[in-house]
Design goal:
heterodimer; A: 233 residues; mainly alpha; 10 helices; 74% helix; B: 231 residues; alpha+beta; three-stranded antiparallel sheet; 8 strands; 50% helix; 15% strand
Amino acid sequence: MELARGAAVAEQIAGWDTIWSEQETALHGDGESSEARLVEGLRAGEEWAYETLIQKFQQPVYNLVGRLLADPAEACDVVQEVFLKVFRKIGSFRGDSSLKTWIYRIAVNEAHNHSRWHGRHHRNQVGLEDSGEARSVSESLVSPGVSPYEYVLGQEQQHLLEAALAELNPAFRSVLVLRDVEDLSYEEIAEVLQLPLGTVKSRILRGREALRKSMERQMEAKAEFQLSPQLVE
Amino acid sequence: MDCYEIRRVLAAYCEGLLSPEQSREVDRHLADCRGCAFRSRQYAQLRSALRQLPALRPPAQLLISLRILASKERVRHLAPAGVPVWLASWITRTRLWADAIMKPLALPAAGGLASALVLFALLAPGLAVQAPSGAADVPITLFTNATFLGMGPFGYTADDIVLDVTVDSRGSLIDYSSPAGHRAWLNDPVVRRSVENALLFAVISPGTAFGQPVAGKVRITLRRSSIDVRG
């Protein structure tokens, strides 16, 4: 009896070892082979493959979607929609592009669809929480070597940039986020957005100019509320 | 190139999309022009700021939600497809739904039904309705027609005649007419007088609407009251 139980436990541990080793290979192995293994695992319904996909893409997809949406608080719902589509459509993934590009394409499309729907249905709603203020204690702590003034200045710049980015046309916002925030190449952006390479480059250039102007507007709007010191006579 | 042309290609320059020759030309211009150099620095700073934007951290709840989603999708993916499976799934879901609905409702519903039955049993004898009887009965018909009650004590000697008599709400004669095909007697003044004399003493009850007497019509047939024996 004890022997049988011991054998069952050993078998289970061996199973976990296999799952962990597969997961490690898919997470940290060399690009194409690990990706192919991951896709195969997903198609076969392997548990480790689902877990690996979530571990590998949760953060970047959340970041991408959060930056593309006007309201980052909506990102969680959209990320779940993205993963649902990935799980269901992995059978139709042909491997013409990388898995990352394919997932990003789904994420960009979902974010745009959500923005359109949100724009139609919740145009006049105002959230109670301010996502900009909802930062954890560890995030709020000033890192050593940065003065409080520099920290506040950095935060202010970041808020201005985020506001300027949110004001951009979605077509420009997509290319800029993919290029600068997600650090994709022109070719990868063209694959994600399914646009010609020339259009991508042109949109990046026009997007940068639009962002610069938007940033200037943000700065001017801020300047109107600034107190200016005056001499007391 | 002048400032206008430089500014048109400045974004491409910062992006590294210009040819080496064009880049050198822009470099030369930027060394001399403070405005364009400032614009160039703006592009570079914006790009740098975008790259330094902190990554948005997903909430911990998202990871749990995604794992639950993955688990459901995996089960769905591995489940064999087909009508029996779909049927079994549908039955399970229906049973679950019925349980979820019925469990909180079953006890209150049974209690309510039992209470209603007890109350009804207690109140039922007092609620027995006795059927009204006697002459005071009022017909519940909403509309009744005028009724011919009888003739006066005078005989009528002309031929049989059919008449439509119009009466008012008190039962008094207003007018009379004869249906088509029975109008030959109208030309005979003797018969007409006889008919009108007979009608003068006819007793007619008016029709009613919601219990109130109203004007109406009644069709009557006058028959001769004497028998001529010929021969």
